[in-house]
Amino acid sequence: MDSLFDQNLIPRLLFSLVAVALIFGPAKADFNATHATNPLWPPHARFHVVWQVLYNSSISVVALYLLWTPAVDYHMHIVVAAILNFIWGAAFYVTLASMSMFGGALADVNGIKPFHFKMGEKVYKIDTNLFFGTILMSINLAGFLLISG
Q: 130-135 long-range CB contacts below 8 Å, 24 or more apart?
């Protein structure tokens, strides 16, 4: 196997972790009564959430293929896989920044509850999507910075 392929094992594992999380995390979070079958959501919004999850999962499958299938240019495959993961994050943060333009919100009152964490005596709440999305993009960035070649 190409030495560049072996040198990039840690970045490939990190990108794979992000891709697998993007396949299963949103499916678990969105294919239930808080999203896809939420009776308070208009049918067209439910259509879009299912479409979005299936699209994102498909892109992640492509990233995994690029990461683990031998190729003439391993480096390019690894970089493209990282970029595919980053596209998810960029779309998330652009949507977050533009929510006021379309009346969006990170969560619904009957949706997934915020993530709680404690620092000292204070308990902080952060939206679950924002929390895990930021962790995934941080892992992806760490992998990107570790790419050799």
A: 130/96, 130/106, 132/21, 132/25, 133/89, 133/92, 133/93
Distance CA 67, CA 61 (A): 10
Region label for 2, one of left (φ > 0), alpha (ψ between -120 and 50) or beta (otherwise): beta
Q: What would the pLDDT profile of 70-105 be if each residue is shown by its tens digit? A: 888 888 999 999 999 999 999 999 999 999 998 998
124 falls in which pLDDT band (50, 70, 90)?
Answer: very high
- The amino acid occupying position 106 is L
Give the C-alpha separation, 144 to 118, whole Å: 30
Domain boundaries, the chain: 3-101+129-146
Structure tokens at 82: 């990282």
pTM of the model: 0.87
